[in-house]
Structures are given as structure tokens and as C-alpha cells.
Amino acid sequence: MLTTLDTVSLTGPLDSAVLRRVAAPLTVTVDDETRARIDHSRRLFRDLLHGDGSGESRIYGATTGFGALVGYAGRADGADQCDNTLAHLGAGQGPDLPPAIVRAALLLRARSLALGFSGVSAEVVERLTALFATTFTPAVPRYGSVGASGDLIPLAYATQALRGRGHAYLDDRRMPAAEALAAAGLRPLALDGRDALALVNGTSVTTAATALARDGVRAAHRALAGLTCLLADLLGCDPGFLDEDLLRAYGHAGAVHVGARMRHTLTGVTPSGTRPLQEPYSIRCAPQLLGAAEDALRYVDGVVAADLGGVSDNPLFFPADRGTGKNNGADAGTDGVADTGQVAGPGEGAGPGKVVHGGNFFGQPAAFAADLLASVTAQLGNLAERQLDLLVDPARNGGLPPMLATAPGQQHGLQGVQLATTSLVAEIRRAATPAGMQSLPTNLHNQDVVPFGTQAALRSYDMAELLGLLCGSLAVGLRQAVHVGARRPTAPGCGRLLDALVETVPPVERDRPLDADVRAAARLLLTTDLP
Predict the structure, then answer these.
(1) Which residues contact 115 (CB under 8 A, 6 or more apart)?
(2) Among 32, 43, 164, 467, which residue's CB has the most CB atoms within a 10 Å radius?
(3) If you average pLDDT over every residue of the chain, what do you get?
(4) By C-alpha distance, which of 378, 359, 316 is closest to 453?
(5) Residues contacting residue 437 through CB under 8 Å, at least 6 positions apart
């Protein structure tokens, strides 16, 4: 249970590869400089809380109620204030989130707190990092967050599990959280109000889901470029639709990039000379479609990088020597992402530093990015489904049998798979409705505009999985096409892709269920560096 697969430092920048690795046990370390930064922030919080000694200053969540009840005093005892924070947020519903998202979200939470702007105790960060060496994962319900004050409700469930309340998973078994902690060799967290609020007042679930969804769509995008090349080669298409001068004249960087990759895959291809002068758009316009998707994904890349490196919390504490408008240690890979030090706020210029109350927990960037990701996913899904439709249609597939059946009528080839792809595309289209502009006021109009980033991100995560299955479906069709008479690929790159599919998916001789074959093909395409 305590066996580690790798080591990650909270000091260095995070990327989505780390978020994927943390789904399994992983050693996460905190160096002395990071501990000193956290301790400095904690001392600043206490200094600002107690002010000049005449009484406690007002700091949201430490001395006050929460949300719309900020105008009322909170509980005087720190442990009671922790309960005050978390108990009322236990209102989530629905199935548990995938453990991969929950663990990635907690790693992001630890990283944000370790940057030293949240005023938490060092023990909180130390104990968060300890859980990653085990399989302990809080059970977190899917529904409840609006992504405005961060992911309050899902992160509250995660925090409660770390305290030994609610439920958690250990070695993929769901059990009471206290039992899971004990079995994992972890001690329950003891928190005060500031610690508890800092653990829930961030967009870590939204960011984790967006990053993982982006990775899934990028893998499918790469796979579709290769599958399109294989389709063109099997049919004997002329590769002129990928001409370098043609795509440069188009003027879009993504199309130039994708076209170059596809030309490399099709190096050595020999056209059959029997195809129409112009191919259907699902082939001829593929570099333009995939190129536009590449341009959109680059925007999503930038948002994910900023969110992975930024500080998501409220309020934030700026020591006097770190509130200068510089990056403040939050290296997000883009200029100005963490340039919060110039924001004026209560306490500016006073004593050792300042506390600033603001909105760095507002998940609008991820909401827009996840909505764009959903649009990209939908159109990539359309492309995969249309290419499979072309492949099974004897009027357009170069004379191959209908449904790629070995004996049409006695055997049905890809008929069931094509029906399923139609269903998958319909599901993706239904889910692609933008979430990031559907603001619905809540919390006595304290949260009078909300981004719904959590919904956007989780929806995109689900859609990415369906897109992978569409790629797997097309791959099974391409493999079957060669079995029923399509030519062997003439481009070596396409030949290698086909060989990998042949090793993974047996030909369809007699009708059999193909659900597992589709999943196997999808895994191959999404996890292997194929052309």
C-alpha cells in the first residue's frame, strides 16, 4: 500500500502528466524553502488576525460566518470554526467522482497552499502530501459545486474524509473514512477555521477535471490524425489535400502543424488513381478541421497551465516582501497570472504585510476553456463518426462490402458498432451545451454571478472518454476493411498503425460482440505513440 511509483516536489511546477500519475501511489515532497514560506504566511495570518493587540481584526472565515452570512461573527474556537466551515457544505448529491479526479484535485490544493499565500499551518500541507503515498481517496459526490467560491461542496467532502468523516476509498474499496485512514496509516487532520476554508475555497476539482479532459481530447485528436491518414491510404486517396503550400495559404497555424504531421505519416503513399477528383469533406477538409481543433486546444493549454500554477483561494496573505506585483512564486507559465500583489486591499502597507479579500476562487477561465473543449470534442466526434460511415458504405468505400461484412446478411460486420457510434455522437452533442455562461444567482445574491466551471469541466471529462470510444470504433472499422478487401497501406507509417491494430483486434469472421474490441483499440490509440 505504501509502495511509491514516482516522486514529485510541490516546489516545482505541476503539469497534467503529474496529475495523471497521482492516480496511483506517489511520493510528494515538501522542501525546507517551501515549509519556511508556509510558516511565514501562517505567522502573517496570526499577526494580522490579532492586529495591534486591541482585539482581533476581521478576516473572512477566521472571525466571520461564510458566504452571505459574512456579516455575522463566526465561532470563537478554531476547531468549532472548522466545523462551522465544513458541516453546512455536506449537501452534495449523486455518484462519486472518479478517484483520479479527486486525487489530482488534492494535489492541486496542496500545491496552491504550498505557494504560501493562504495562511495555513504547515501540518495541513505535510499531511496532504502524506496521503499520496497511499491509495486513500476521499469519496466525493459529483453534484453541488457552482465553481464560484471554488469547489466548495466537493472539496468539503474531501476535507471531511481527511478528518475521518464521511467515506473514502482504499485499494478501490469504499468504506468509512476513519477506517480507511487507519488502514492507510494516516492520522485524521485537525484544522482551524483558516485551514478548513483554505482547503475548500479553490477551483482544484475544476482545474483537475479540465486538465485531464484536455489530455484525453489531445490524445484523441492525435489518434484521429493518424486514423484519417490510414483511411486515405486504404482507399487510395491522393494526398494533395495535405499539400504544404495549400495549407500555408489557408493561414491558420493549427492546420499547418497538423498537415505537416499527416504528411509525415503518409510519406510513401501511392494513390490508386481510381478515386474522385475531390474527396468527401471528412477526408479533404480533415486538416482544416483538425487544425482548428489544434488552435483551440492551444488556448485550453494556456488556461490549464495558468490554473496549475496559480493561487486559488480567498483571502490571500501577502508578506511585505512578496506583495510587489511579481510572480510571487506562482509560476504558471504565463506573464502576470499570479500578479496579485498590486491589488489594493485592507491592511495594505501596514506592518508585516496585508490580507486581501477578493475572487481568486472564481473558475471562469476553466469554464470557458472546458466549454471550448466540449465544442472541439463534438466536432472531432462528428469527424470520426462520418469517416466510419464512409467506410461501411459500399457506394463510397471503393467497392468494399456493406458494413464491411464478410458475408452480408449472414454476417453483419460493423453494423452494431456503427449504431453505437451514432448513439455516442448524439450523447456528445447533447452534452456540448456551454455551461460557462449559464449563470444562476445563489447564496442570497452574494454569488450573484457564477461560472459553473465545475459542471463544464466534469462534462468535458466525460465527453473525452466518449470521443476515445469513437476513435476506437473507427479503428476497428479500418482494421476490418483490410480483412474484407481493402488494399494494404502503401505508406510505412500507415502500415505500422494497421499492424498495431491487427495485433489488438481480431478480424470479424462470424458475428461477435465488439464492445471489448472497441475499448481495446481506444486504449491502444490513446496510450501509444502511434503515427
Answers:
(1) 37, 311, 328, 329, 330
(2) 467
(3) 90
(4) 359
(5) 371
Q: State residue 379's pLDDT score.
A: 98
Among 249-253, 447-451, 454-458, 464-468, the minimum mean pLDDT is found in: 447-451
Indicate the burial class of 433 (C-beta count within 10 angstroms; 0-12, 13-18, 19 or more).
Answer: exposed
pLDDT of 530: 80
The DSSP line for 171-203 is TTEEEEHHHHHHHHT-PPP---HHHHHHHHSS-
Among 17-26, 46-55, 125-134, 465-474, which is the least confidently predicted range? Answer: 46-55
Grid cell at residue 11: 516546489
Task: List the grid coordinates of 8.
Answer: 514529485
Beta strand pairing call for 27-29 and 7-9: parallel
Answering whether pTM is above 0.90, one says yes
Q: Which of 353-362, 444-453, 517-526 has the lowest mean pLDDT?
A: 444-453
- Angstrom CA distances, 61 to 67, 68, 139, 166, 219, stand at 9, 12, 25, 23, 41
Task: Note whether 104 and 211 are within 8 A (CB).
Answer: yes
Query: Distance (Å, rounded) from C-alpha 303 to C-alpha 333?
Result: 10
E strands within 308-465?
A: 316-319, 353-356
- With a CB cutoff of 8 Å and minimum separation 6, the contacts of 267 are 491, 492, 493
Strand extents, DSSP E, 71-156: 93-96, 137-138, 141-143
Question: Which residue among 60, 157, 169, 461 is the active-site one?
Answer: 60
Q: Which of 501, 458, 466, 463 is nearest to 482 (CA)?
A: 501
Beta strands in 108-189 (DSSP E): 137-138, 141-143, 167-170, 173-176
User: Residue 160: what residue type?
Assistant: Q
The DSSP output letter for 25 is -
Nearest to 214, CA basis, from 302, 133, 276 = 302
Distance CA 217, CA 132 (A): 26
User: At residue 176, what are phi and psi to the nearest 5 degrees?
Assistant: -55, 140
Residue with cell 474556537: 77
Phi, psi torsion values for 442, nearest 5 degrees: -150, 180
CA dist., res. 192 & res. 123, Å (int): 12
60 has catalytic annotation: yes
Q: How far is the C-alpha of 227 from the C-alpha of 524, rounded, in Å?
A: 12
